[in-house]
Amino acid sequence: MKHITRRQALSIGGCAVAAAAIGIQPAYAANNQQELIDKFTGGKSATEGRVALDLPQIAENGNTVPLSVSVESPMTKDDYVKRVLVVADANPRADVATFNFTPSSGVAEASTRMRLSKTQNVTAIAEMSNGSFYMVKRLVKVTIGGCGG
Amino acid sequence: MASKKPRVKAPKTAKKGEVIEIKTLISHKMETGQRKNKKTGKIIPQQIINKFVAKFNGQTVFSMDIMPAVSANPYIKFNMRADKSGEFEFTWVDDNGSTYSSKSKLAVN
Predict the structure, then answer these.
(1) Does B106 reach chain A within 8 Å, measured CB to CB?
(2) How far apart are CA B27 and CA B24, in angstroms?
(3) Ordered domains of chain B (ranges, CATH)
(4) Nearest-5° angle of CA A113, CA A115, CA A119?
(5) Tens digits of residue pLDDT in A81-117
(6) What is the fold, at CATH topology level, of the domain defined by A31-144?
(7) Which residue from A71, A133, B7, B53 lies 20 to 30 Å from A101 (Cα-Cα)?
(8) How far apart are CA A61 and CA A91, in angstroms?
(9) Is-contact A93 A22, C-beta < 8 A?
């Protein structure tokens, strides 16, 4: 006889709700990460390096995952970081946030907290004042998804 | 209705050229637009803080474009190089059109 524990039953129910919520909005059904990155870089390719993403390896609660991004730059008027885009490749919507820096930022560093629906890659892409792009990608394992379903 | 009073932790004084750290937090549920009302089955419309701007003496120092993937009660930490004394103005923009703001003075010596 099939035996389903209470825990399994709950998890099946939870996933169904999440799937239904995503299904309603077909525009976001396929994650738009690549589209967003292309729009941000204008089709240019980003070099790996100079950008650091500080994220937990394992996030117990996907509703609040601490995120810090920093970019190596002297942050002078002639050489600074303009913007940093943060995207997540398995959220219903890929875009998380864009940080806009100025030379008076002093350092190109910012922190916030984000939602991750499940285990996925988080990517940060930085646009420098000279028009070049740098990126970094990090995998975050999520124990409890922050889909809020 | 939860209050949307922002909280800001910024230093009051700094040495010239020092890079200072500013931390902000605002109470906001950051409704993603992905959740459903369990009773009616209808999608709860998105309502988030979509933009944060930090100005110093009227000039933008740092800003952030915020998407629904930012957690409830958005926390933002950033930096500024203290070159002269002046006043910060922090602004949060809500999807419903409201803005919330907070000011803080900085003395540079």
Answers:
(1) no
(2) 10
(3) 6-35+43-108 (2.60.40.10)
(4) 120
(5) 999 999 999 998 999 999 999 999 999 999 999 999 9
(6) Immunoglobulin-like (2.60.40)
(7) B7
(8) 14
(9) no
- For residue A17, the surrounding DSSP H or E stretch is helix A6-24
Higher pLDDT: B32 or A17? It is B32
- Quickly count helices (H) and strands (E) in chain B: 0, 8
**A17, A20, A113 ranked by CB distance to B71: nearest:** A113
Q: Please tell me the predicted confidence (pLDDT) of residue A11.
A: 52
- In A58-107, DSSP assigns E strands to 58-61, 65-71, 81-88, 95-101
Q: Is the pLDDT of residue B14 over 90?
A: yes
- Provide the chain B residues 7-66 that lie in CB contact (below 8 A) with chain A: 19-20, 32-36, 43, 56, 59-66
**Phi and psi (nearest 5°) for A104?**
-80, 0
Residue type, B71: S
Q: Provide ipTM, 2 decimals.
A: 0.92
**A8 DSSP assignment:** H
Q: Which of B34, B70, B72 sits opposite A147 (nearest CB)?
A: B34
Average pLDDT over residues B24-35: 92
**pLDDT over 70 for what percent of chain B?**
97
What is the pTM assigned to this prediction? 0.84
Q: Average pLDDT, stretch A66-90?
A: 95
The DSSP symbol for A4 reads -
pLDDT exceeds 90 at position A57: yes
The domain ranges of chain A are 31-144
Could you tell me which of A21, A30, A122, A109 has the C-alpha nearest to residue A71? Answer: A109
